[in-house]
Write a structure and sequence with these properties.
Number of helices: 11
Organism: Shewanella intestini
Distance between the termini: 108 Å
Shape: elongated
Protein name: DUF484 family protein
Structural class: alpha+beta
InterPro entries: DUF484, GAF-like_dom_sf
Oligomer: single chain
Pfam family, one: DUF484
Largest sheet: 4 strands, antiparallel
Helix content: 40-55%
Keywords: Coiled coil
Length: 240
């Protein structure tokens, strides 16, 4: 028997030569015989081949319509329809991400403008009482905080001294505090707080902000705005 006949009768040729219209009849569990032993069709090889040959469907465009992909709403769709759907979903996702980034940028710009104005207002303060009033009024009006306080820590006050040493060990603390701590710092119960220690060059002072929202201040949040206000207070307090 000639080699041509052997090639025509090979199991692989039956798969490759299958008409495009009958592609569904091949199913997903394709197999062929090698030395009279059934071997599963390697889907990974097929995947690698298609990735290495992106023009495959250009050469066999009829497969795009003949092959069907399961769809949870429409039953089955062609590869072209499936690709269009995936691209539409990706576009929608990117639009949401862009909108989110634009909202964040707008909010950051507003915070920057607020912080700049606050710095000028604090620099214009002539005494400690005016500084406290400007600081508390500005932060409450802009962010809706319930309390804004500058608290001097005296050694004889063991509760404040304990907060100074233990609660604010890393210069900043964001999150929840105990009822006892809240009462000592803010005079009553609060949701969440931001605390920092000011420079010890002008005694021990805690700068504290409280919100009624328990989730407003979180340990993982950024401290940029808080640190900028802290630097301004470190600059101003020794002069008042």
């Amino acid at each position: 028997m000639s080699s041509d006949n052997n090639n025509n009768n090979s199991p692989r040729s039956g798969i490759i030569d299958a008409p495009a219209a009958d592609i569904n009849s091949l199913g997903t569990n394709l197999s062929f015989k090698v030395d009279d032993i059934d071997q599963p069709f390697d889907e990974l090889l097929l995947r690698e081949y298609l990735l290495d040959n992106p023009d495959f469907f250009n050469r066999y465009p009829e497969l795009l319509l003949a092959m069907r992909v399961p769809h949870h709403e429409r039953g089955a769709v062609s590869l072209v329809e499936r690709r269009q759907q995936m691209l539409s979903q990706r576009v929608a996702q990117l639009e949401e991400e862009i909108t989110s980034l634009m909202n964040i940028a707008t909010r950051n710009e507003a915070i920057f403008e607020f912080n700049t104005q606050l710095c000028f207002d604090l620099l214009a303060c002539e005494d400690l009482g005016q500084l406290r009033q400007v600081l508390a009024g500005s932060l409450k009006a802009e962010f809706g905080f319930s309390h804004v306080r500058l608290i001097t820590v005296h050694d004889v006050d063991s509760e404040l001294a304990n907060i100074w040493r233990n609660r604010i060990r890393d210069d900043y603390y964001f999150g929840r505090i105990t009822q006892l701590e809240a009462k000592r710092l803010f005079g009553g119960e609060v949701g969440s707080v931001a605390l920092t220690r000011l420079s010890m060059s002008h005694s021990q002072v805690i700068f504290g902000i409280a919100s009624t929202d328990p989730a407003h201040f979180r340990p993982e949040m950024d401290s940029l705005l808080f640190s900028q206000i802290r630097r301004m207070l470190d600059h101003m307090l020794p002069k008042l």
